[in-house]
Every structure is written in structure tokens, then in C-alpha cells.
């Protein structure tokens, strides 16, 4: 169905006590690396291939996952030559792009139904679909505003004034068509701050997929402790 591109190059400065020797996506949560949980999640939705876009201490990820044979999924590794921020690695990995793709940050715990999201993307003939959720930490979230048809009409960066802009935050998971990659003119850039405004300026169809399903970043020790206390991973 989809190829999944995972941004696995996180340095994890706020978690440096844990990431001194490993990339941020390799932090252990509920007994195994965050990235392992993401691979398990992707397999539920018949993702055809996973491309791990590695950076900091890439060898740790490559050693753990290899070509995916032990995880019963095809895994490829795209290793950035130097830090390309959150968006540059996707452009750098463009040779792996063959059709509709999903992108997710490698520091997320995710239980979003990817098939439902993909169906929403196709039904709306979208160029890009962004997962939105009501954030509990708006102060460090990018906010997106939508119209009555769930089409995204405005992007408000986490660095801008958040007074009366709403509470629908970018969740770090999106689906896009290859034509969106063509908008990436820079080499080193932040995915959201650079690409989202470009998609809107180009008047491509950018949809908001609102969900209450768990999608949670592990950016601080507090959030890490919160997910450890949660029922994530409990068989329902």
C-alpha cells in the first residue's frame, strides 16, 4: 500500500541523559525502542516498505534493524551526510519515493489507524493529509486551522503567537503525494515550518485528519514517564 518514511535522526537534546550513546528513536519505552514500536505499528497496516532516514549515531539503528528480515518487513536506510533537520532527510531520500508515501517522526508512539487515514486522503483527492489532534502542550506545538470541509487553511508555527488560534496541533504524521516533494527547493530545512506554508502557497489540497487515537511524542522526561504509566502496549 504505502511506503513509510521515518525520520530517525533525532538528537534528543532534552533527553541527553538517555541519548548520549543512542539516537532518540532508540530510547526504550515499555521494554523496547520507540522505533521498534513504530515498525510494529506499520506492519499492522501492510506498509510495503519502511525507509529509515538516519542521522545521529545511524549505526545503532542499522545494527538493530538491518534490512528488516528479522522483523518480517522490508527496511531501507537513508543516511544523511550531515544534519539536514527534520525535512531535508525526506528530500535526500527522494530516490526511494515511488508513489504515495507516509511520513512520521521517529520519536512518536502511534496508534493511529493508518488505513483509515489513507482512505481519507484518497477520498478527498488530497495532495497532503496531516494528522491533527488536540494538544495538551500548545506552547510548543504547531497549530493548523481548517475550514468546514477539514481543508487546512493556515499554519501557525510553534514560534508564533498562539493567542486565539485554536488547539488543533500537528501530530507528526502525514501522507503526501510525490508532487509535494517537488516544492522542496532547499537542502536543509524544518519539515513543518518550511513545507506546510509552501503547500498552502501553491494552493495544493492539504487536508486535516483529526483523531483522538494515541499519537504522542516522547520529547521530554515527563512525557516519557507519562507513556510508561499509560496502558500503551496493553493487549485490549
What does this structure look like?
With 236 residues, the chain is an alpha/beta fold. The chain has a single domain (3-229), classed as Spore Coat Polysaccharide Biosynthesis Protein SpsA, Chain A, CATH 3.90.550.10. The protein has helices at residues 16-19, 34-44, 58-65, 88-92, 114-123, 178-181, 191-201, 221-229; strands at 3-7, 28-29, 32-33, 49-54, 75-79, 101-105, 108-110, 128-134, 143-146, 152-156, 168-176, 206-210, 215-217. Strand 9 and strand 10 (152-156) form a beta hairpin. The longest helix has 11 residues, at 34-44. The protein is globular.
Helix and strand composition category: alpha/beta
Globular, elongated, flat, extended or rod-shaped: what is the shape?
A: globular
- CATH class assignment: Alpha Beta
Average pLDDT figure: 93
Element pattern in H and E: EHEEHEHEHEEHEEEEHHEEH
Tally of discrete structural domains? 1
The CATH architecture assignment turns out to be Alpha-Beta Complex
Instruction: Supply Rg.
Output: 17 Å
- Percent of sequence in beta strands: 25-35%
Say how many strands there are: 13
Assembly type of the shown chains? Answer: single chain
How many helices? The count is 8
Tell me the helix content: 25-40%
Distance between the termini: 26 Å
The CATH topology is given as Spore Coat Polysaccharide Biosynthesis Protein SpsA, Chain A
The CATH homologous superfamily corresponds to: Spore Coat Polysaccharide Biosynthesis Protein SpsA, Chain A
